[in-house]
Specification:
- The chain is of the alpha/beta class.
- The chain is about 30% helix and about 15% strand.
- It contains ten helices and twelve strands.
- The chain has helices spanning about 40-50, 80-95, 155-175, 190-195, 210-225, 250-260, 285-295, 310-320, 330-335, 335-345; strands spanning about 10-15, 15-20, 25, 55-65, 100-105, 135, 150, 180-185, 230-235, 265-270, 300-305, 325.
- An eight-stranded parallel β-barrel has the order 3-4-5-8-9-10-11-12, surrounded by five helices. It has a two-stranded antiparallel ribbon with strand order 1-2.
- A hairpin with a 2-residue loop joins strand 1 and strand 2.
- The longest helix is centred in the middle third of the chain and has 20 residues, at about 155-175.
- The chain is globular, with a radius of gyration of 20 Å.
Amino acid sequence: MPDSSSTLFTPFSLGKLSLPNRIVIAPMCQYSADGDGNATDWHLIHLGSLALSGAGMLIIEATAVSPEGRITHDCLGLWSDANAAALGQVLDSVRHHSSMPLAIQLAHAGRKASSAVPWAGGQLLSVEDGGWPCVAPSAVAYSDAEPAPTALDAAGLVRIRDAFVAAARRAARIGIDCVELHGAHGYLLHEFLSPLSNIRDDAYGGSLENRMRFPLEVFDAVRAAFPADRPVGMRISATDWVEGGWDLEQSVSFAQALKARGCDFIHVSTGGLSPLQKFAVAPGFQVPFAERIRAATGMPTIAVGLVTEAEQAEEIVAKGQADLVGVARVMMYDPHWPWHAAARLGAKVNAPRQYWRSAPRGAGDLFTGAKIGMR
């Protein structure tokens, strides 16, 4: 194993929550709940596997705060006590074998709700085909081929804000260590931020201050409801990749407003609001957005976007482009990616003792605290 002092494998703290390294497993929708938002055996297998990976923190997939806020019929939910009981049972089993901090991404899909699962095409389901009416900041459709959602009235805003609060309280009760609010990828909170989807003429639309108002109100309410010693952050899309839409400078202003309210971290992605988006995909293509927001705010920042190689992740944190690196699809492809990254960078990583014998030749000290003896 090469001699190295890896920044990627140094500890980091989000508020009072200590992470053993800078690798964060970003949320990955599984579309495998039971139809009522309840976690299933799939979640036990999926989350259990990821929790043995040696990453610094695992963020559970986008979890709907209300039935109408699901992306699909099969999305995970936390709108009921039954949801909390099912997920809590899964997490109790996971924690029995892993000490990895567990976060959850609370979400409302807005006008991108009522979709078919990806392997059934992923498109909007009509009410006649089993879908449900969508709500949004304004009656502006996602695309010309879709009907317009219903614009939320004042009572609707209160209802959704309160649903986020109730879900955060349930998350606290089942021992979730951290909450991430989903303000990215064209879902409801992002829809309020972007002038492409928010054309309201009240206090929640128009100016940047007004468009930020509802996402900030949701953040404030969740922060007040979730235990003060556990972090709350937000994932954002730093740009719509559409002219006249949400952009990096507005994202900086939003991040500064979040920091002033006690936000513990920001998770920086891009896109998802409009089918008109245009961008070139390349390794690390979203990292500069995280770098700019981190430089402008000093807030702990998670970078994502085709980060697939150990050396690439190491460079991001070593150069100060971000404090943490989010990995998602690469973790589904290689659930032991953090082990392999540690081996390549000459670092140590946590692993279950049942797997200590698996360290490759030449990397015998890869796993922290490993002791092997046989007769």
